[in-house]
Design a protein that fits this description.
CATH class of the largest domain: Alpha Beta
Helix content: 25-40%
Number of strands: 9
Distance between the termini: 19 Å
Number of domains: 2
Number of helices: 6
Length: 223
């Protein structure tokens, strides 16, 4: 079965991912309505989230070394972290009550001490690729071993654009907020290698002024 990947982002009217506080309740309500098997997240997004909302990294507890016993219908958090940047911070993800548990996507260049850290805490991880994570291999493995076939990602532009360039994204969900960032705009799309033809699948306006547009990608990116 081919894995379905949906990019879901909250942006300003000029397409910025940062520089404003999105309507998080609405953002995650829409995300939840997709009922994904997993959320695909870049390490940078986890780090930024901890800095913005976490108030520092709490000390690990013995329970953080154990796999959570949560409902099997909850989505996995699949985190791309081949450089081991989240060493010492992954328990902030594991503690999130709507996360089934964490799966790390690593590579052959991932530091050994980070892999030891994962093993000691019973985190699942996949070695895919030599230097950077081979996403196509990793996604196939996730489908086969974990039955993960629908993935939603609301991560930053680097991972999102990479997925588009690989031709792996089937749908774009964009929650547009009624404001302009201007000179500090950090655009959602960066380095897209080919022109993409989109089809508007859905458009909905909310009382807070946000507009939610959903597009299907009719022309795949370059492989």
């Amino acid at each position: 079965m081919k894995t379905e990947i949906i990019i879901h982002n909250s942006v300003s009217l000029d397409g910025s991912l940062t520089g404003f506080m999105p309507d998080m309740e609405l953002h995650y309500r829409i995300a939840g309505d997709y009922h994904p098997d997993a959320h695909l997240i870049g390490a940078d997004t986890i780090i930024a989230g901890n800095e913005m909302f976490g108030g520092g990294i709490p000390e690990e507890l013995p329970s953080d070394f154990e796999v959570p016993r949560r409902h099997q219908g909850l989505p996995w958090w699949v985190i791309v972290d081949s450089r081991g940047r989240l060493k010492g911070a992954l328990h902030t993800c594991r503690r999130f009550e709507y996360c089934r548990d964490v799966i790390i996507l690593a590579s052959e260049s991932t530091p050994v001490d980070y892999l030891d850290y994962l093993k000691e805490r019973n985190y699942s991880f996949i070695i895919a690729g030599a230097e950077k994570t081979d996403l196509e291999f990793a996604l196939a493995f996730l489908s086969e071993k974990y039955k993960i076939n629908k993935i939603l990602t609301d991560t930053g532009r680097v991972l999102g654009s990479h997925l588009i360039n690989l031709g792996l994204v089937s749908e774009l969900s964009v929650l547009i907020h009624p404001l302009l960032i201007g000179g500090n705009c950090y655009p959602m799309f960066y380095g897209i290698k080919d022109e993409l033809k989109l089809r508007l699948k859905k458009s909905e306006q909310f009382d807070n002024g946000c507009v939610w547009n959903v597009y299907t990608i009719e022309k795949a990116g370059i492989k």
